Amino acid sequence: MDKKVNIEFQKGLEKKRIVHFAEAMNSVDIEIQSAKDDLSEASDRFSNKKYKYATITAYYSMFHSSRALVYSKGYREKSHYYLLVAIKALFVEKGEIPENLLNEFHEAMVLRENADYSAQFSKEGAEAAISTAKDFLHLSAKILGKK
Questions:
Q1: Which of 111, 139, 141, 145 is the most buried (most CB within 10 A)?
Q2: How are beta strands 18-20 and 75-77 bridged, if at all?
């Protein structure tokens, strides 16, 4: 495991931004379903030219896919940043998720923040976020043994 990532993960645990979560396994299916629902909603919004909300909802699909993965390891994050840290430490560094997909997730996070807080969004950004959300959901479901 990358020493910096391990340190960030440890900091998250110490700061209680990543915590052990007793009900984690009971929540995996709920998070995967939320990811599927958000992806469907993002696609609908995109087809209706609602690019701001397509971007935001596509990001949340990735958020829920990521949460399902982190829950499967018995943890829960308490911030979007530490969700990225947990995914990197628990899945990317172990070779289960390619680093480029994590980078695309991070880019979608920035797109979501820009759309949500600065009203900056585009058709291309929404399309990229939806594409990444599809890839992230597919891989997460595969890792978790879900359809």
A1: 111
A2: antiparallel
Confidence label for 1 from pLDDT (cuts 50, 70 and 90) = very low
Query: What is the largest distance, in Å, between two alpha-carbon atoms of the chain?
Result: 45
DSSP 8-state symbol, 147: -
pLDDT at residue 146 tops 90:
no
How far apart (Å, rounded) are the C-alpha atoms in residues 17 and 107?
21
Residues 82, 8: Cα–Cα separation, whole Å: 8
User: What's the rounded Cα separation, in Å, for the pair 105 and 54?
Assistant: 15
Structure tokens at 123: 């058709």
Q: 37-56: b or e for each residue (b if 16 or more CB lie within 10 Å)?
A: ebbebbbebbeeebbbbbbb
- Sign for the CA dihedral angle at 135, 88, 37, 42 comes to negative
In the block, tokens 């998720």 appear at 97
Give the whole-angstrom CA distance, residue 27 versus residue 19: 15
Residue 71 reports pLDDT greater than 80: yes
- CA 144, 89, 79, 20 torsion-angle sign: positive
Separation CA 73–CA 39 (nearest Å): 23
